[in-house]
Amino acid sequence: MSGGTRKPRAGTSRQTGAPTIADVAKLAGVSLMTVSRVINAEANVRDATREAVQAAIVKLNYAPNRAARRLAGAVQLRIGLFYSNPSEAYLSAFLLGSLDQASRSDIQLVVQHADPHHNASEVARRFIESGVDGIILPPPLCDSREVLDLLAAAGVPTIAVATGSQPDHVASVSIDDRGAAREMTEHLLRLGHERIGFIIGDPNLAASGERLEGYREALRARDIVPDDALIAQGYFTYRSGLDAAEQLLEIGDPPSAIFASNDDMAAATVAVAHRRGMDVPGDLTVVGFDDSALATTIWPELTTIHQPIAEMSRAAMQLLITMLQSRRNGGTAPPQHQVLDYTLVRRQSDAAPRRRPRPSVRKVD
């Protein structure tokens, strides 16, 4: 082989700078106009074609040129993210997904916080007046009837994320919370656990009730009558998880496993077990829900339900963009409800229950 400069093969081009819209079109096998329609979130593009273009954009790490889009007459959309989630781990994953999709779609993302228990509707009203084109509601605001009614009355397109109720008049992105909780409980039953404690999430969130029902369904399927003494109320916060775990471990016949409705409360349960001198999972199996960053930053790492939080926020953003573009083009369509897949992720916090008597431990104040 000679040491001369190798010529590019036929049909290939040398990448000399940032990828262009032509590169995206070539990789996706579509026209430049089709790529432009996808970037501008126009409704008259087939789903398969849209997915192919979006895959090419991701693979090439293509960023639309804003100046060129303005010259072409494209109007940048302003989408609001209205949140009040108490879990920093959940919120971080949600924000990362939203920001990533907003950047890829050249959307201006406006973020607004509200206390769900104090004047959330007033903050929502001011948010609407700021001129956002549409709003994304992660939990728990996704189930706030007051906020949803206000947005509906104002005619603001809205996406409710991770809601367990899926109202007919509001588009939504979620997972099967009941099915996921049922699968996790079945997993614990297969390990040999029969006394399984459950920590409920925020009672104002529909998904909390769905997860509780999934837990109960799995027990009933094994002819185990759910014991109210094994169910404790939490609020999706670490603090509430500490209180709930203490309550469950104080009863006369404590559970051999505790299933918490999110990773924050599961991490708190692990902390309580360690403070009591218990080994996890030797003395107590602990599992969670969400698969947030917290699940792999504590010891032992949590067995949990992977809820694709970032993917759900991206899907919500894309769904809202499509709705807004269709609306600008004069189209109307019933709200869509997308259900994404979940996964049971097994790590180090679960094991079969010990068959010997548990050691007597004294509560440390």
Automatic annotation (TrEMBL):
MF GO annotations: DNA-binding transcription factor activity; transcription cis-regulatory region binding
Residue ranges occupied by any HTH lacI-type domain in the UniProt entry: 19-73
PROSITE patterns: HTH_LACI_1 (PS00356), HTH_LACI_2 (PS50932)
InterPro entries for the chain: HTH_LacI, LacI/GalR-like_sensor, Lambda_DNA-bd_dom_sf, Peripla_BP_I
Entry keyword annotation includes Metal-binding: no
Disordered: annotated segments: 328-365
Biased segments, Basic residues type: 354-365
Residue ranges of the TM segments: none
Cross-referenced CDD domains: HTH_LacI, PBP1_SalR
Entry keyword annotation includes Cell membrane: no
Leader sequence residues: none
Keywords, comma-separated and alphabetical: DNA-binding, Transcription, Transcription regulation
Pfam families: LacI, Peripla_BP_3
Name of the protein in question: LacI family transcriptional regulator
